[in-house]
Amino acid sequence: MENPFKKVIHSEKLPDIIKNKVMDDINVVKLALDVTDLLAIKYPEALNDIFNFSKKDNKNTN
Q1: Which of 1, 3, 12, 33 has the smallest set of CB atoms within 10 Å of its CB?
Q2: Chain centroid to CA 40: how far?
Q3: Where are the domains of the chain?
Q4: What are phi and psi of 2, to 5 degrees?
């Protein structure tokens, strides 16, 4: 079996198609991390802040 990486290193220039595919994969991973961060961390924290703020308002008015 031939090592495909030896071909890439030997030619020393990666085809633009492969570069684009790798960059697209990296962008998909970044997007997935951003969405996960938004839904798992920032959104619950925002809801928590909203509900805690409304509870503080209720305590101050009573």
Answers
A1: 1
A2: 12
A3: 15-47
A4: -90, 140
Token pair 């308002």 in the structure block, residue: 57
- The CA distance from 48 to 25, in Å, is 34
Tokens encoding 3 = 């090592």
Please enumerate in sequence order all residues whose Cβ is within 8 A of that of 14, keeping only pairs 6 or more positions apart, or say none.
8
Q: Are residues 27 and 21 in contact, defined by beta-carbon separation less than 8 angstroms?
A: no
Which pTM does this prediction carry?
0.56
Count of C-beta atoms within a 10 Å radius of residue 8: 13
